Amino acid sequence: MVFRNDLSPCDYGPPGDRALNVGWLDAEHEFTRGRVSELVLSRLKEFVSSGYRRTRGYHLCELCPAPSSGRKEPALTSTTLGEVRLGSAELCVVSENGTSFISPNLLVHYVEVHGYQPPQPFLDAIVGGKAC
After folding, report:
1. What is the pTM of this model?
2. Which of 8, 10, 109, 132 shows the smallest number of beta carbons within 10 Å?
């Protein structure tokens, strides 16, 4: 996965939309930390269940330390539909004003485990927007 600054233009979003990057984190760059509401976390998990663009493999969290076995596994999150493996799809959220936000589905793990706080326009879109 390639680091991208939050709210930088995404050059491969949905056709005709203004798409912005959110949550493309890596171990080399600092990121904003803080809490998100339970509503935001619940909605994120709804979006994660749909998966926007799926890939053929998993990107492992670069922020998690390697386990003693030395073998990292894909991050998991619990949703109302059961456990979801993260790192193999993107999220696409469209805000009420039509702006699209593209992020890795690992964003849920970053929020839950690493305390990542996405930018406010994205949080607003999660609550009031819809999936692409």
Report:
1. 0.90
2. 8
Domain count, the chain: 1
Q: Which domain holds residue 100?
A: 18-63+73-131
- b/e map of 55-86 (b: 16 or more CB within 10 Å)? eeebbbbebeeeeeeeeeebbebebeeeebeb
Is the Cβ–Cβ distance between 74 and 88 less than 8 Å?
yes
Q: What is the pLDDT along the chain (132 residues), one digit of tens a residue?
A: 788 999 999 877 665 667 899 999 999 999 999 999 999 999 999 888 776 777 777 889 999 988 888 788 889 898 888 898 899 899 999 999 989 999 999 999 999 999 999 999 999 999 999 988
In a domain, 13, yes or no: no
- Per the domain annotation, does 45 fall within a domain? yes
